[in-house]
Amino acid sequence: MTQTLQDYFWDGYLHWADLMDRAVEGPAPSLEQVASDTGMAVYEPAFVRVRECLCPASRSQVEGVLQAADLSAGASLLALPELLFLSGQDLAFDINDLLIGLEHALFADAPLEFFLYRPIARSLAEHQQYDSIFEVIDLGAPALYRPAPAPFMDMALQGVNGQPLPQAEVIGAVIDNDIGFLNTTFRHRDGPEAGNTRFEAVWLQSRECLASTPLPPINAVQLGRVLRKAEIDAMIHGDPRDELRIYGDINDALHVWDPFRRPPPVESHGTAVADLAYGQDMCASDNPCAVPLMAVQLPPEAAVDTTGSYSESYIVQGVRWLCAEARRRAPQARLVINISYGVLAGQKDGGKFIEAQIHREITLAEALGQQVHVVYAYGNSLNAQQVARVQIAPGATSDPLVWVIQPDDPVPNFLEIRTLSSAGTPHLTSLPEGLQMTVTAPDGGQVIQAAPAPGTAVPPLGAARSGAPARLYHAPERVVSGRPDCLGFYNLAIAPTRRIDPDLPIAPAGDWRITITNTTTAPVDLVLQVQRGDTAPGFNIGGRQSFLEGTAVPVVQDGHPGWDVLAPLTNEGTCSAYASASHPRIHTVGAQKDVLGQVTAADYASRGALWAGSGAETQNRVVDQVFTFGQRTTGTYSGTGSRLSGSSGAAAILSRELVQVGMPPTT
Q1: CA of residue 236 relative to chain centroid, distance
Q2: Whole-number Å distance between alpha carbons of 551 and 558
Q3: Among 297, 289, 304, which residue's Cα sits nearest to residue 182?
Q4: Is residue 642 a contact partner of residue 633, using CB atoms and an 8 Å limit?
Q5: Using CA atoms, how far apart are residues 662 and 658, in angstroms rounded to an integer?
Q6: How does DSSP classify residue 81?
Q7: DSSP secondary structure letter of residue 666
């Protein structure tokens, strides 16, 4: 096996991301192995800011291309002096995303920012290869780049755009997994469009299908496949295959890994969210809320991986695409985007890349005359024993904290250790140097005792990773002008406890003991957050959720019995790390239950904290009753059923309200 990243890392999640390639229903080949077998290459997405601004002549040419609204015309922009670095190099890019970045740069009179793809950097020198041309703002999980077009990509990449929607007042959109876009709940019920789909466009993303396009030069790519209304209607009315076979054939052509080439499951998170938000009774022609729909279906890895390393760049690309697609076709319509994905650990101040960039996309869309609402699920981690808070005096060592790692776990577990500020309003800040971590394995053997400097890890990075069942990364603080800082933190990674590759280490399951010695001259206030979710969207509970050992005690909340954890564990800050950015049109939604007419927080509803964004969710919606759990929704296939609970269900309900009345009622 080759090492994905050797003497350099962007963050610990991506450095160990190759482990996920083997964690899907048993052994699977690595990216490098697939690339070797198929002639593909391993690339990684980088969101970059070009250092050289557009000159007046280039601005004029870009304006002409944007007015033409033709993807094929975008290829001419590669002759611009500011973009010559994209021609004849080993850099790949999506023309659509490049045009989005150029539109933003023109309007804001700012440097161009967009996603490009580069061969995965295995050293700091490779990472810095283009430092004189662009600045890297964020990296995503590696993908496979095909050197030739996929057979289904001809129509979507030859300037074939959807028709204008002059009558649309609002567009409903969802970013999720396994979206049953052929389901009858998303079709018009009557009128001239009876039986036709309400989906105007669906982007089926695929991590393994970063394929070159028919456009010159050959390094123009598209991630996955775009389906538009005409193609979906043709599947509904003229295709002899049933829904299951159509989905299966699409996935077979779109993905490389066998488990992902099958039809989606009967019950899927994405379909349930889309149905509760925009389906069911919103299809009638006389219903003013029979809104057109758009969707981004995330790669299957995004649902399997619960660390977030596979999700962020795809979600951000999806938001950019949805805003641009809606703006081109219905500039007068407001756009409601439901994102019921999330992760627990993070800096939770709006500075995480996904938070900051989606906030930026909303702001830029508004400046361009478009109103965009984003609805996040707030989280379901109450009493899941995922967060702890520890104060340590100068020269002191903390009491041992026990992190329980489950057996038979095919994916790594992560723990973020961050520092709280000591002055003013509490907020997370970059970790000071001089905090010594001691990590002891369940068998009593000491695995780590170190205080790594920013940008380093223990054991040290190198060509070989054998014998390292755990690794402590010190992710450095990163500062980009005009953006929130990316804070520095410790990231402790524990290898899988199930053997998935003979060349990879496994970690023993059981109680991992962690102590921290404060060698600085000031007290420290630490927040520790587990980054590992057992229940990925659309997947059954697998019993592999790691947790911090602690004590739960009975409490009474709103007159009802419940539970809470004792220090050092805390439920404060158990909210999603995607849901901390503050904006009037960013809505974070928590789940409630109705107990015989009295509304109270759901038993699992995550809490905010004074140090986590605004400190609480912005909205709450009832999803559970005293005797029923969740809301009834459709399954993936027409005529099937499912239920949706949690903050995903609450977020879907608010999305529906935003579509119906424009603004949510005050809670």
Answers
A1: 30
A2: 22
A3: 297
A4: yes
A5: 5
A6: G
A7: P
Cβ-based burial of 367 (10 A; exposed 0-12, middle 13-18, buried ≥19): exposed
Q: Which residues contact 166 (CB under 8 A, 6 or more apart)?
A: 330, 332
What's the start-to-end Cα distance of the chain, in Å? Answer: 54
Per DSSP, the three-state class of 654 is helix
CA–CA gap between residue 32 and residue 42 (Å, rounded)? 7
Lowest mean pLDDT among 115-124, 148-157, 644-653: 148-157
Which pLDDT belongs to residue 539? 44
pTM value is 0.94
Q: For strand 435-440 and strand 428-429, is the pairing parallel, antiparallel, or unpaired?
A: unpaired
pLDDT at site 287: 56
**In whole angstroms, what is the distance from residue 508 CA to residue 495 CA?**
9
CA atoms within 13 A on the CB side of 240: 0
CA-based nearest residue to 565, from 381, 397, 435, 356: 381
Whether residue 412 has a cis bond before it, omega within 30° of 0: no
> In this structure, what are the phi and psi dihedrals at residue 549, rounded to the nearest 5 degrees?
-70, 135
Peptide bond into 217 cis (omega under 30): yes
Question: What phi and psi values does residue 199 have, to the nearest 5 degrees?
Answer: -75, 120
Angle, CA 307 vertex, CA 305 and CA 310 arms, to 5°: 55
pLDDT value of position 159: 46
Residue 405, C-beta contacts closer than 8 angstroms, at least 6 positions apart: 413, 442, 494, 497, 507, 508, 509, 510, 512, 546
Please enumerate in sequence order all residues whose Cβ is within 8 A of that of 433, keeping only pairs 6 or more positions apart, or say none. Answer: 451, 453, 454, 520
Nearest-Å Rg of the Cα atoms of the chain is 24
Range 257-291 burial, b when 16+ CB lie within 10 A, else e: beebbebbbebbbbbbbbbbbbbeebbeeeeebbb
* Contact (CB, 8 A) for 348 and 613: yes
Q: What are 268-316's pLDDT values in tens digits? A: 999 999 999 999 755 444 554 578 999 999 998 887 776 777 889 999 9
Grouping H, G, I as helix, E, B as strand and the rest as coil, residue 660 is helix
- Judge contact between 430 and 453, C-beta under 8 A: no
Residue 168 has which token pair?
Answer: 């649309």
Mean pLDDT of 574-603: 94
Closest CA to 546 of 398, 429, 385, 399: 385
Neighbours of 550 (CB within 10 A): 16
**Matching residue, tokens 């030859």:** 158
Does residue 102 register a pLDDT over 80?
A: yes
Write out the H or E segment, with its range, that includes residue 619.
Answer: strand 619-625
**What is residue 615's three-state secondary structure?**
coil
